[in-house]
Amino acid sequence: MINGASSIGRLDRLAIGLGGLCLVHCLATTVLLALVASAGSVVGAAWVHELGLVMAMILGFVALGQGLRAHGFLLPSAVGSIGLGVMGGALTLPHDGSETLATVVGVSILALAHRLNRIAAE
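Given the sequence above, the corresponding C-alpha cells read:
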C-alpha cells in the first residue's frame, strides 16, 4: 500500500457515505413529497438539497485530488469530474424531478470514482 493510502481510503469511504446519504435524501424526499406535503416541504427545502450537494461535491473533489496526488492515476479523477459536473448541473435544474434524477446519476458516477480511487490506492 502506498503512503497515505489509508487517508485516501478514509476520505473515499466518507465521500461514498455522504453520497449515499444524499441519494437516500433525494429518494426519500421524493417519496415524502408524494405522501405527505407538509413533511416534504421541510425535508425537501431547496437549501437542504443544495447544502448537502455542495458538501458532497467539496468532499469528492478533495478526496479524488488527494488520490491523484498519491497514486497518480487519472481515471478516478476523470470519472469523478463527470459526476461532479452532473451534480453541479443538478443545482441549476428546477425542483420538478429532473433535479433528483440528475443528482442520483451524478452521485452514482462520483461513488464509482471513489471506488476506483480506493482500488488505485491499494
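The CA atoms of residues 7 and 66 lie 9 Å apart. Try to locate this feature in the C-alpha cell string yourself.
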